Amino acid sequence: MLIVSSWGKLKKLSRAELQLLTRALFLLPLTALWIKFWGFKSLYSTMGRASCKYNSQLIPVDASGVCRSQADITVRMVSIASRYGFYRPNCLQRSLVLWWLLRTQGMESDLRIGVRKRAGRFEAHAWVEYAGKVLNDRNDIDRHFAAFSSAIEPFGVKAL
User: Fold this and answer.
1) Is 126:91 a contact under the CB 8 Å cutoff?
2) Which of 110, 111, 115 shows the shortest CA–CA distance to 142?
3) Which of 5, 14, 23, 48 sits between 20 and 30 A of 55, alpha carbons compared?
4) Across residues 18-44, what is the average pLDDT?
5) Edge-to-edge strands of the sheet including 121-130?
6) Average pLDDT, whole number, for the chain?
7) pTM recorded for the entire structure
8) Where are the alpha helices (DSSP H) in the chain?
């Protein structure tokens, strides 16, 4: 019954949504492998440079909400791929894929990383913000993790 329900939901997705979902399904495990073998810095820089070549004009925050609705669709597709795909990514991998997919669509977003110390353990968490709003996590996530003062810019990529 679950498979039939999921198939029915999948058939309702638009072609653009299916393309985003497919890209997320493949990018999530590739992101994990890249980080494991070459590290976060290498991947983040490569993704930043590639997205600039892919879409050389990033659109600043759109007041009309058109970009926000497209960003919400992208968040939803990455979330579905994370939940039902063949690989279960962590927050950094999910956020990197979301950040990159937004950039390839021309939407400037910020990868944020926060840290906290809880019960003697150091913990880190990653999320994506668009227009100052958290896209892929709780709105108050910055109250639970001390975010770095600014978004982390990929090495070798010019900020807008």
Assistant:
1) yes
2) 115
3) 14
4) 94
5) 133-134, 121-130, 110-118, 146-147
6) 85
7) 0.84
8) 2-11, 15-38, 40-54, 66-84, 91-104, 141-144
